[in-house]
């Protein structure tokens, strides 16, 4: 058995060691990673149709607390956050007595705004990511560019108009709203699929995971990953 003994160092030696460590970190380009503040955001949006409060941490563990009044949508947001490893809390009150459209679309708006705020100056992010998620007979691909240009292109043919009480076309409306307000270019494409539940869930998982990889920071990146110098 090896016994390690703590070596006593005087103040001068400790200061020299700290300076050496700091210099090494600077040389490796890691200062920004060590000093970066938490990438989080809290957004509230109130309209005549919805009242939504949302908190997001990009560097979380997939912890979720989601209540929108639309159970299937809650399930999809949980899938998005858990597979993206985002900590996400959503409290949404909407005019669901009319239908779920406003609640789903407005939650997409607020989630997009939260991502835009949490990303801040976008220093050191990987920016691009693509993922293909299988779910039984279904295969859905999502590709994302944190470009500053909010746009979504979705090709998700769905075999049924509803899953339970959920209007399936609202999935695409969510992605449109999210991409626009997050300032990301998003492509979501169904490569195979027969079950509407599987298709939508695979899409949310794919977008969540693609966003996770695109938002991650890379110590090799200097500044913003753009030839223009801004995103």
TrEMBL record:
Subcellular localization: Cytoplasm
Main location: cytoplasm
GO cellular component, one term: cytoplasm
GO BP: any one term: L-histidine biosynthetic process
DNA-binding keyword on record: no
Signal peptide span: none
Reactions this protein catalyses: D-erythro-1-(imidazol-4-yl)glycerol 3-phosphate = 3-(imidazol-4-yl)-2-oxopropyl phosphate + H2O
Pathway per the UniProt entry: Amino-acid biosynthesis; L-histidine biosynthesis; L-histidine from 5-phospho-alpha-D-ribose 1-diphosphate: step 6/9
Family the UniProt entry places it in: Belongs to the imidazoleglycerol-phosphate dehydratase family.
Protein name: Imidazoleglycerol-phosphate dehydratase
Organism: [Collinsella] massiliensis
Gene behind this protein: hisB
